[in-house]
Design brief:
The chain is of the alpha/beta class and 370 residues long. Helix content is 40%, strand content 17%. The strands form five sheets. A seven-stranded mixed beta sheet has the order 1-10-9-6-5-2-4, with helices on both faces. A three-stranded antiparallel beta sheet has the order 13-14-16. A two-stranded antiparallel ribbon has the order 3-15. The protein binds pyridoxal-5'-phosphate (PLP).
Length: 370
């Protein structure tokens, strides 16, 4: 089976992990600190706090920025639900925005449309998502948000290695959140991190991930209602080598996406994702014409030995958000269409050129022969 995603784990990575296990020092320690430095070094800005998942990163970032009951937060309507679940878990309200049909991400226009009808001070933050690694237009999003006094969070869970206007994603946000889930380009099993420029903010994130503990007069005090969102040291050890290899890994991902774009160009019934030089291509999602049965395409690809799947969700169509907010079914047409017709194809550094050829040829022939 040609896998949708596959982690890039070497024997040396496993050995690094095993060394931590043998040492008996399992919780947050020197490998977590080394991973934090490696991520901040790779991105080229800010300070990094590792946490136990991308969801934990988003949760602690919002907590550290003071989001809570009575606040509203802008979220793109097409994303993995964790982006909005954290808003809801903090007692704030999710204000959905439609996304661009070709890049799948939030635009300033989508934000402006969603802001209409909301009091100037009610919407406290925006979470822009770099969906599948596509770098959201953060300079414009941040300018619009800051003009209204809003905090800017970047859900870069899929976007380690992506660049926006020459700088690594996250640089324009108050806090950028990354995931190290196995579907992502660098993995610790479960894991994530928050990358921020403001040293005080990163200290708040560090306190919140560790039960709210703060050293005071040589004693540990609990100065915030924190959580346990720490990453273990053996998980961090697993990722160190992956970061060392990450430059070439991103280059290979870009090469694979370019191959798909070349091989699938002009296929009737198929819309390809808009390319961007800064895209790190966590996933390659195409969009099928409405007349095509996505489930049947997924099953036929599987029968040909190719794993494929839907992309992300249209949040207003999911049970929780539909029951709470009751949006019209056509409130976010681009998100709905991407949810209904998006198809993610295999993309990982272990994918061979001949396998890309096989995937593209099989998909083309399935579509052309109905
Ligand atoms: C856009 C986005 N946000 C948040 C998350 C949550 O990350 P994690 O699974 O590490 O909690 C994901 C993971 O799939 C994601 O794709």
């Amino acid at each position: 089976m040609i896998r949708l995603a596959a982690p890039d784990i070497s024997e040396q990575d496993i050995e690094r992990c095993a060394a931590v296990l043998r040492s008996g020092m399992l919780v947050q320690g020197p490998n977590v600190a080394a991973l934090e430095d490696a991520i901040a070094g790779f991105a080229g800005f800010g300070t990094c706090a590792a946490v136990s998942s991308g969801t934990a990163a988003l949760h602690t970032a919002l907590m550290a920025l003071g989001i809570g009951p009575g606040d509203a937060v802008l979220v793109p309507a097409f994303t993995f639900p964790a982006t909005a679940n954290v808003v809801e878990a903090l007692g704030a309200r999710t204000v959905l925005c439609d996304v661009d049909p070709g890049t799948y991400v939030l635009t300033p226009e989508g934000m402006a449309a969603a802001l209409q009808g909301h009091r100037e001070d009610a919407v406290r933050a925006v979470i822009a998502v770099d969906e599948f690694g596509y770098p959201a237009p953060m300079t414009a999003i941040a300018a619009l948000a800051r003009g209204r006094g809003m905090a800017v969070i970047e859900d870069a869970c899929c976007a380690l290695g992506s660049m926006h206007e020459g700088v690594h994603v996250g640089a324009h946000a108050d806090a950028a959140c990354f995931s190290f889930h196995p579907r992502k380009a660098v993995t610790t099993g479960e894991g994530g991190c928050v990358l921020v420029r403001d040293p005080e903010l990163v200290e708040r994130v560090r306190r919140l991930r560790n039960h709210g503990i703060e050293a005071r007069d040589g004693l540990a005090d609990f100065t915030a209602a924190g959580l346990n969102y720490r990453l273990t040291d053996f998980q961090a050890a697993l990722a160190l080598g992956q970061i060392e290899r990450f430059g070439p890994a991103v280059a290979r991902r870009r090469d694979l996406a370019a191959r798909y774009a070349y091989l699938l160009a002009g296929t009737p019934g198929l819309a390809l994702p808009e390319p961007d030089d800064g895209h790190s291509w966590q996933s390659y999602m195409v969009v099928l014409d409405d007349g095509l049965d996505r489930l049947a395409v997924i099953e036929e690809l599987r029968a040909a030995g190719i794993e494929a799947n839907l992309g992300a969700q249209a949040l207003h169509e999911l049970g929780y958000f539909a029951a709470k907010y009751g949006h019209e079914a056509d409130a976010f047409p681009n998100a709905s269409r991407l949810y209904r017709s998006g198809l993610v194809l295999p993309l990982h550094t272990g994918l061979r050129d001949d396998e890309v050829l096989h995937v593209a040829a099989t998909l083309k022939s399935l579509i052309e022969n109905g």
